[in-house]
Amino acid sequence: MKSLVSTAPGRQDHPPQPNPPLLAARRVGAVDRLALHLGVALIKWGRRPLSMESRERRASRIEQSLARAARESETERRWILTAPLR
Q1: Sign, CA torsion 68/73/76/82
Q2: Alpha helix segments (H runs only) across the chain
Q3: How would you class 33 by CB atoms within 10 Å of its CB: exposed for 0-12, middle for 13-18, buried for 19 or more?
Q4: What is the rounded distance in angstroms from the CA atom of residue 61 to the CA atom of residue 71?
Q5: Is the peptide bond before 9 cis (omega within 30 degrees of 0)?
Q6: DSSP state, 3?
């Protein structure tokens, strides 16, 4: 079945009305830009961390992460060595 369907929308108003006038592009004023920047700055300031993590705590967290990775790799190695062959 071959049929051509128009992709252009048809006009439904009778009698046809003139096209509405185009609105001019509106520029954002300086006060609005200032308010936007102030709002973004307040949001960033509100989401800041309340206390900085100490170097010792950061170092211990990294050491714990490395130790956990070593334990996991040792467990995987032991499982591979003791698993029955298929």
Answers
A1: negative
A2: 30-46, 55-82
A3: exposed
A4: 15
A5: no
A6: -
Radius of gyration of the chain (CA): 33
Per-residue pLDDT at 6: 64
Q: Give the type of residue at 8.
A: A
Whether this model's pTM surpasses 0.70: no
Buried b (16+ CB within 10 A) or exposed e, 10-23: eeeeeeeeeeeeee
Lookup: tokens for 20:
């509405």
- pLDDT less than 50: residues of the chain: none
Place of tokens 């995987």: 76
Q: What is the pLDDT of residue 83?
A: 87
pLDDT at residue 68, as a whole number: 97
